[in-house]
Amino acid sequence: MPKQIISTDQAPAAIGAYSQAVRTGDTVYISGQIPLDPATMAVVDGGIESQIRRVFDNLKAVCEAAGGDLSQIVKLTVFLTDLGDFPTVNDVMSEYIAQPYPARAAVGISALPKGVGVEIEGILVLED
């Protein structure tokens, strides 16, 4: 199957050798999103909750650019520099995604790009 690159200016531009997302068939693989404001490419102000909200805003923008929405996410991988922030991820995620929730993994990591506390990647399955 051919692959289609998904790109939107409503989410941060790639800061490395990768695409915001890649679609093949009905599946869209969304690259890890960090809490960058797409207009300024700066890390959002505020604490971890602000960072998590920006990440979900970025994921939402990429989903929409692919022709879908957050409800079609089937898998999320959450990277946190402090696993103590996981309850905040749950709280914020429940505002963006309704049940049934996607499959998910959480990974504690020592550092993330630009010194942020959270990065989330996802897999979206589009319905015809």
Could you explain how this protein is built, in words?
The protein has 128 residues and is of the alpha+beta class. It has one domain: RutC-like (60s Ribosomal Protein L30, Chain: A), CATH 3.30.1330. Helix content is 23%, strand content 29%. It has helices at 48-65, 86-96; strands at 3-6, 21-24, 27-33, 73-80, 103-108, 118-125. A six-stranded mixed beta sheet has the order 1-2-3-6-4-5, with helices on one face. β2 and β3 form a beta hairpin. α1 (48-65) packs parallel to α2. The longest helix is centred in the middle third of the chain and has 18 residues, at 48-65. The relative contact order is 0.23. The model has no long low-confidence stretch (mean pLDDT 96).
Q: Which CATH architecture would you pick?
A: 2-Layer Sandwich
Query: Looking at this structure, what is the CATH superfamily?
Result: RutC-like
Mean pLDDT: 96
**Low-confidence segments, ≥5 residues, pLDDT <50?**
none
Distance between the termini: 16 Å
* Total of DSSP H or I helical runs spanning 4+ residues: 2
The SS-based structural class is alpha+beta
Order of neighbouring strands in the sheet with most strands: 1-2-3-6-4-5
Radius of gyration: 14 Å
Sequence-ordered SSE layout with sheet pairings:
Elements: E1 3-6, E2 21-24, E3 27-33, H1 48-65, E4 73-80, H2 86-96, E5 103-108, E6 118-125
Parallel strand pairs: 4-5
Antiparallel strand pairs: 1-2, 2-3, 3-6, 4-6
Helix pairs in contact: 1-2
